Amino acid sequence: MNGRPTSPVTILGSYGAIYLLVVVNLVLALAGISGTWAVVLAVGIASLQAIVVALFSMELLRSRRSVVVVSVIAPLFVVLLLVLTVVDVYTRQPPPLDIPPIDRTIPSPPP
Amino acid sequence: MSAIPRLQHHFEDLPKQAHAAKLGMWLFLGSEALFFAGLFTLYAAYRAHHPEIFRLGVAHNDLVLGTVNTFILVTGSLLVSFAVNALRLGRRTWAILLTLGTALAGVAYLVIKGFEWARHMSEGIFPGGKGSFFVENPEPAWAIFYTAYYGLTGFHVIHVTVGVGILAWTAWWMHRERIGPAAAYKLAIVSLYWHFVDIVWLFLWPLFYLLRNPA
Amino acid sequence: MKNYLNHETTIWSWLSTKDHKRIGVMFLVSVTLFLLVGGVFALILRLEHLTPDSTIVSANMYNQLFTLHGVVMVWLFLIPAIPTGFGNFFLPIMLGAKDVAFPRLNLATLYIFWVGAIVMIYGILDRAADTGWTFYPPYSSVTYTKAGPVLLGVFILGWSTIITGVNFITTIHTLRAKGMRFMDMPLFAWALYGVSVIQILGTPVLGIVLLMVVMDHNFDWGLFDPARGGDPLIYQHIFWFYSHPAVYIMILPPMGVVSEIVSTMAHKNPLSYKAIAYSTFGIAFAGFLTWGHHMFTSGMSEFNAGIFGILSMTVAVFSAIKVFTWTGTLYKGSVWLRTPLLYIFAFLFLFIFGGMTGVAVAATSLDIHWHDTYFVVAHFHFIMVGASLTAFLAALYYWWPKITGRMYFEGWGVAGAVLVFLGFVGTFFPQFLLGNGGMPRRYYHYSEEFQALNVLSTAGSWVLGLGLLLVLVTLIWSLFTGEKAPANPWNSRSYEWMTPSPPPKENFFETPRIQRGPYDYHLPLERR
After folding, report:
1. ipTM surpasses 0.85
2. Does residue B53 lie in a domain region?
3. Is C524 a member of any domain?
4. Domain count, chain C
5. Closest-CA residue to B30 (of C313, A17, C205)
6. Nearest to A91 among C229, C288, C303 (CB)
7. Which domain does A83 fall in, by range?
8. Would you say C151 and C214 are in contact if contact means Cβ atoms under 8 Å apart?
9. Across the interface, which of B9, B42, B140 has its CB nearest the CB of C98?
10. CA distances for A52 relative to A58, A61, A69, B23, C51, angstroms
């Protein structure tokens, strides 16, 4: 980690890519993209940015295998928790009941 | 030249010690990723429950401020990357200034975030569905949207604050010559934390500012 | 002779130590203390259940007792015990290292543990918690009890666990002695590696979800309140994402202990080193795929129930690989029947029961009947007490000579092991029958037809308590009058026996040169 400094060109190049992706994400939102595609693209772009930061700024490209393994495994488990929880919500039958608005004019019951 | 880091008695040599510090930080960041995972899961599950109100909530957030904050944090990461480089090349003054610049970027982010929260609160939006906004908008999902918003951004704010503190502390140590080019790995490890915090925001930004458009 | 215990004897030298051995000893004392606390809660619970109605405590007190029994046992004993006690002590020595990778952080984990424990105790002494150790909302959001400090205490304890995990993995990667490849490490090190992976990936998720409950309970955030758009099942998903792998945190280190003791006492190398090593990671990762089996009756979607039901079966495969390997190692070994091995036999027998009933409750259709009954309670006590605690006791006896420099009393050791085993079976086997017969868990009252088995279970708890007390008293007694222990009383080939009992402060007098494997029983012991 003390080792060779990274070339400024590489640093600027990688951040250029990140700034560019920020702009792309913004433009897509301003253009009105919606629905499932919006989520896929927005999160996909964020993931791409995360990969660029990890590979270049966090120097995964020149890190030992043990470090790379950690950087791959952790996000996988984030995805695991998120996906299976959301799948539960989407596959419940029947759909969640509509909850009526709270009537705030009556006092709430004591605990 | 500047300080040579002390080789601790149980390490074979300095490169091993540096690698241990790096691996340790990555493991810690792995745990931090899972720390945020619960909150992201909360958001995802509740957006699945209440897609329309979440969309409206996101549309209500200030896209300009959110995007400015994104640029600020990415720039902070850029600065700290150059700081690590500078330290490796022995340019201590540049390293200190760039590190402080990153810390400043963090502070700017916090100020803008604080401003956003203040504005929400002035509209009667508080965590737990409390405040006048929720009387005017009685659908239950509004409460969970904003509580999740405060929870996620608040948790991130805590991490940014800690990051600013550590960056300032590291800059101080560089100034006092306790961290020099031979110990550049210590600044590199701090920068790893900062990059992680940046990555989390790169996900928060679309979730709370971009996914706003009606179908 | 100067060793790690007597080279410096001031209290400050202990409180400020960076020596992993002293830290390990302090953890061992701490977790044993909390084992006793949790055990007392259990004894009171069992006393209460002597009669179907009120016996010695009120209903509210009962709720608090079963909550605290779970919280204390899980987070102040089962999760830390073997890793922080024996792991801290032995990992560096087994790797031929002078210390763990981050010694100061290691000391910090001890202080963080105590801060967490004290915060929790403050909560316990005030108005405790009565939600069950699982803290489910909506009740945990509105309970009048002091759930806040108890939750915060657990949150703080989680940091101790995470840092320990980081420390152990880094130690294994960077401090192995020259020439020791991953496949040359003692299997206990593999167990510690596996448990550290789970601790790093899982504990933060617990941390955040407990923080969420604190925000709900103390600040009325309503994160899981349906009236505010919330969904209590989301809590359960996030909670069990950690809490299922947590049970593997509680079993992997004991399995590591079993691997060590089996090879030593059978004087034989493991039937398959790779099977044990790889199955450890199999358990560590597969354990994360199964959490929904705690939610079969919660209102989760049937689709998810199906997925989790199938995935839950996979973990048993890895456990079975280990059990068969251990059995095959003992077979035709030169078996030396001493107290540690008695506990290992108990482990193998009880773990199979506990594990098989685990596969049974993983079957969705069966769990519908057994969920929230004493069947589940019996299942997890068979693992947590019958396997984990048993292995902890085995480790205590096995490594007692090395840690203390004294031999324990073999006769009393056998007596204690027999009482513990019989008491355990007497306490928990009836609970399978109770649960299958329909007795719900966490209920203050029970139906009269269940009384006979409850009385039996309570009697068993007294025998178990007596056995544990006997173990504690006779081990402490041996500190004063036990015979001095040789460096290698078991003629083991594992590396921690290469150094004197107790070890010197620097672990080894000269840097160890590892020229054979830790289980090379076909090679003679080195001459010293």
Report:
1. yes
2. yes
3. no
4. 1
5. C205
6. C303
7. 8-91
8. yes
9. B9
10. 9, 10, 16, 19, 65
Give the domain extent around B130: 14-210
Residue B146 lies in a domain: yes
Q: Is residue A110 part of a domain?
A: no
Residue C518: inside a domain: no
Q: Assign residue C94 the CATH number of its domain.
A: 1.20.210.10
Q: Is residue C159 a contact partner of residue C208, using CB atoms and an 8 Å limit? A: no
pTM: 0.94
d(CA A42, CA B202): 10
Site of tokens 């290292």: C97
Provide DSSP, A14-47.
Answer: HHHHHHHHHHHHHHHHHTT--HHHHHHHHHHHHH
* CA distance readout (Å), C204 to A17, B37, B88: 32, 9, 34
**How many angstroms separate the most distant Cα atoms in chain A?**
69
Quickly count: other Cβ atoms within 10 Å of residue B90's Cβ.
Answer: 15
**Cβ pair B141:C229 closer than 8 A:** yes
Q: Could you give the CA distance from residue C191 to residue C273 in angstroms, rounded to a whole number? A: 12
| Domains identified in chain A, total number | 1
Q: What is the pLDDT of residues C7-21, one digit of tens each?
A: 989 999 999 999 999
pLDDT tens profile C5-54: 999 899 999 999 999 999 999 999 999 999 999 999 999 999 999 999 99
CB contact under 8 A, A54 and B199: yes
Q: Which residues face C484 on adjacent strands?
A: C406
CB A78 within 8 A of CB B40: yes
User: What would the two tokens of residue B129 be?
Assistant: 């569905």
Q: Which residues of B touch C175 (CB under 8 A)?
A: 10-11, 20
Question: Which H or E element spans position C367?
Answer: helix C364-370
- Burial annotation C169-203 (CB, 10 A radius, 16+ → b, else e): bbbbbbbbbeebeeebbbbbbbbbbbbbbbbbbbb
- Residue B204 in any domain: the answer is yes
Dihedral sign computed on CA atoms, order C149, C129, C158, C469 = positive
Residue B144: list chain C partners with CB under 8 A. 222-223, 228-230
CB B130 within 8 A of CB B147: no
C363-372 residue pLDDT tens:
999 999 999 9
Name the residue type at position C231.
Answer: D
**Residue type (1 letter), C355:** G
Boundaries of domain holding C187: 11-498
Alpha-carbon dihedral sign for residues C3, C7, C10, C14: negative
Q: Do C234 and B41 touch (CB under 8 A)?
A: yes
CA angle C88, B24, B105 (to 5 degrees): 140
**B130 lies in a domain?**
yes
How far apart CA B56 and CA B38 sit, in angstroms, is 23
